[in-house]
Amino acid sequence: IYYSQTILCLSCMNPMLTLALVLFTGSAASVDTVLKIVATAGETVLLPCITTASNDVPPVEWTKQGTHSSSVIAFLYRDGCETFEMKDPVFRYKTNLIMHELHHGNLSMLMSNVQPNDSGIYQCVIPNKKKQVITTLELWTISCEHLGEVIF
């Protein structure tokens, strides 16, 4: 695993499960800082999103930026459960939250069997009256053969 301030490169060492965990110390991370995560095709990746712990779990919306500034819903959690009808069919059976961690402020999303078409900009948002962006990150999914060719 290679880690710098904004790049996390996941190796081909464990293709079954790769967890990208990011711990922020001191002040909150700036929304302008985009974490870059590189994963190999077929892995399960954790897209990190940490907020303040609360007894009342807020609604959580994970979106992937699409073409022409539109976005698609990768995961939507509200009223205590996943909302399937608004989830983009591409992400059906592919994305989950860690439900027992929600009360601890961990709103991170697991994405299984990532493929190159999963690459893109993702946002973790609390969609209240004012959309509060918690995390913005960029996921790059490549095949293991091309891992050494990635230039940052």
TrEMBL record:
GO terms assigned for molecular function? signaling receptor binding
Its GO biological process terms? Answer: regulation of cytokine production; T cell receptor signaling pathway
Kindly state which keywords UniProt assigns to this record, in alphabetical order.
Immunoglobulin domain, Membrane, Signal
Entry keyword Signal? yes
Give the chief site where it resides. Answer: membrane
Q: Which residues form the Ig-like domain?
A: 15-135
Q: Where is the signal peptide?
A: 1-20
**SMART domains recorded:** IG (SM00409), IGc2 (SM00408)
Name its cellular compartments. Membrane
A Gene Ontology term for the protein's cellular component: external side of plasma membrane
- Name the Pfam families on file: V-set (PF07686)
InterPro entries assigned to the protein according to its UniProt record, in alphabetical order: Ig-like_dom (IPR007110), Ig-like_dom_sf (IPR036179), Ig-like_fold (IPR013783), Ig_sub (IPR003599), Ig_sub2 (IPR003598), Ig_V-set (IPR013106), IgSF_BTN/MOG (IPR050504)
Mind telling me what this protein is named?
Ig-like domain-containing protein
